[in-house]
Write a structure and sequence with these properties.
- The protein is an all-alpha fold.
- It has helices at about 1-30, 50-60, 85-95, 105-115, 120-130.
- Helix content is about 55%, strand content about 0%.
């Protein structure tokens, strides 16, 4: 009977040692075992993955700024979004409503890169168009 108890205690001790060794080796390994899904190109960014959006903004910053027949808006660079008159906001709305819905996100990036804040009066429509 003593041999069975000693055998079970030995098996239990070996199990504890193996468990401790596994725990220590995983703790020392700084790599995370999480699966990272590779994001596609910038047209597939949904807004949920911040790194995708960040990458796309950085990528867009290295390319030439794309204009949407809106060069006249450059005079608003640096103006606060809350300080636009209704007539000035209408200029942004005219550009927004003449573009295709899939272009709205690229237009917003273009404005950001040019240092132009979208007027508060137009932001809701822009966001609605971007989100589809």
């Amino acid at each position: 009977m003593d041999i069975i108890v000693i055998g079970l205690l030995a098996i239990l001790a070996v199990g504890v040692l193996v468990g401790l060794g596994t725990f220590i080796s995983r703790k020392g390994n700084a790599e995370d075992d999480a699966i990272v899904i590779a994001s596609g190109d910038c047209s597939t960014c949904s807004g949920e993955d911040e790194s995708c959006e960040q990458t796309c903004i950085m990528e867009a910053a290295t390319k030439a700024i794309e204009y949407f027949d809106d060069e006249e808006l450059d005079r608003f660079a640096g103006k606060d979004a809350a300080n636009y008159t209704d007539d000035e906001a209408e200029e942004f709305a005219e550009v927004l409503y003449t573009m295709q819905p899939h272009e709205a996100k690229a237009w917003n990036r273009s404005l950001i890169l040019r240092g132009i804040n979208v007027p508060n009066q137009v932001k809701d429509e822009l966001i609605a168009m971007i989100e589809g």
